[in-house]
Amino acid sequence: MKHALSCIWLGWLVFFSVLPVSTLAAQEIPLEYCDRLPAIRVEVVGEKPMLFLVDTAATSFLNLHSFFPGNLKEVEISSYRGTAVTGAREVSLPEMRIGSYRFAGVKMLAIDLSELGKNCGRRIDGILGADLLEKMGATIDFKRQIAHFMTTAERQDEKLIAEANQDMERCLAALNASDEKTVAQCLDPQITLFAMNTQLFRREEALTYLQAHYFHRTSGAHLEFRSSNFHVVDEAVWFEYDFSLITPGNAVHARGMAMCHKSEGHWRIANVGAAIVEPEIPAGK
């Protein structure tokens, strides 16, 4: 029974502590290149698909020769050579699309970018800089030759995971402090927990187990864990986890799946899946 009890206790600790904000799957757009500079295709309403350089260290600009110019302004442009003042035209774009991302009523400055295209024999229509890349949650994967852009739905998923993480941190602190009242609020009334040959159903059974085997006890345990493959369904978060619980004289290694969901404005633990537990090994061996 000791083996099962250790696993259940470990499952609780993992559930209370492994909801970091993750990088969720995003839409992927293939990279093109102008010489060695990465670029992607951008759609501007009324124009053919255009080629924009991707530069995380620059501000977004349009090519003066690709768009109808507007009012002249003086702007400072910073680069590795220093800062220079040049003339730029303000251009209004009715809509700009990058994958499923859409920007309506965009106003951008246009400067002469013709020199950039000479190195690769292609016209560069603009620079997609840090200001827009950040808004789109963009990351560049040079190994896979892909640009990732977060969608609105994926941003919402990220927000839900962040909210869940905040509540689970509060629950972990309550668990370690043997704060039974707060822990009870962290549990769904119909919680289900499986671990080895032990099954717990409903909040009352889970609290009874914790009162008997965890609250007000000192174990000197050290927990290591890794979470992955997050999935958001409505207002529930599923994820996989691998973890280790090292106690004086023993070490338990396991993996499984868990789920929490939002109820009455708070994230509550609803399910801890059956964990696969490896044999206990004396610590230090």
Explain what the structure shows:
- There is one protein chain.
- The protein has 285 residues and is α+β, with helices and mostly antiparallel strands.
- The protein has 2 domains: 2-23 and 154-277, Roll (Nuclear Transport Factor 2, Chain: A), CATH 3.10.450.50; 27-149, Cathepsin D, subunit A, domain 1.
- The protein has 6 helices and 18 strands.
- The model is unreliable at 1-10, 20-26 and 79-85 (pLDDT under 50).
Features:
single chain, 285 residues, alpha+beta, Nuclear Transport Factor 2, Chain: A, Cathepsin D, subunit A, domain 1, 2 domains, seven-stranded mixed beta sheet, six-stranded mixed β-barrel, 6 helices, 45% strand, disordered N terminus
What portion of residues belong to β-strands? Answer: over 45%
Average residue-wise pLDDT: 76
The helix tally amounts to 6
Spans of at least 5 consecutive residues with low confidence: 1-10, 20-26, 79-85
CATH architecture of the largest domain: Roll
Radius of gyration: 27 Å
**What can be said about the biggest beta sheet?**
7 strands, mixed
CATH classification, class level of the largest domain: Alpha Beta
Number of domains: 2
**What proportion of the residues is helical, as a percent range?**
10-25%
Q: State the end-to-end distance.
A: 23 Å
How many strand units? Answer: 18
Instruction: Encode the helix/strand succession as letters.
Output: HEEEEEEEEHEHEEHHEEHEEEEE
**CATH topology name of the largest domain:** Nuclear Transport Factor 2, Chain: A
